[in-house]
Sequence to fold (225 residues):
Amino acid sequence: MRILLVEDDRSTSRFLKKGLSEVGYTVDAVFDGEEGLYLATSQVYDLIILDIMLPEMSGFELLKAARRAGIATPVIFLTARDEKSDVVHGLELGADDYLIKPFSFPELLARIRAVLRRGQKDNESSRLTLADLTLNLITRTAERAGQVIELSGKEFALLEYMMRNAGQILTRTMILECVWGYDFDTSSNIIDVHINRLRGKIDSDAAVKLIKTIKGVGYVLKAED
Fold:
């Protein structure tokens, strides 16, 4: 799942991006409201985490503009603004939750999962399935043929992206942008490393191999040859 983080405090932004990436979320981090609005309206995200006191455009203004543009992406305000009037105003503008700084990271994760769970109940199943492979998007767990597969956060994010696009050829650039973020170094071989690890976990003991290499192009996840 892909998250847009709009937070002007760079140390907080680094902390959040690292923590969220470790549990399997893809995070695009920006530091001002105008760039946040541009990405929110030009890219597809599962969630936006938004500060209020931002350069160029406040979080309130960003959310109001995004909702006016028809962007329904769930939003969690993460801010030091703790006045009840601010909380009410944020929720009335269309935020799905409001968390006050200082915060605990486990509480933020719980709130993220709750917001995403609500959205998935409304819009889609919380499970992805291909052949005998199942991915639970809420518990962040994977199984093949009933056997639990232990995945790192980034392996989970990679498998989720591939399962959401099963049958479609995914280039390395597409995978980098959607799983590692738009600002990742495209010259890295990290895609091939993670694909090989994922193969070892989901395909090594299976009669039907799901991850297939398209030479010179990228990869595809599909059950049939």
Notes: The chain is about 45% helix and 20% strand. The domain at 2-122 is CATH 3.40.50.2300 (Rossmann fold). The chain has a mean pLDDT of 90.
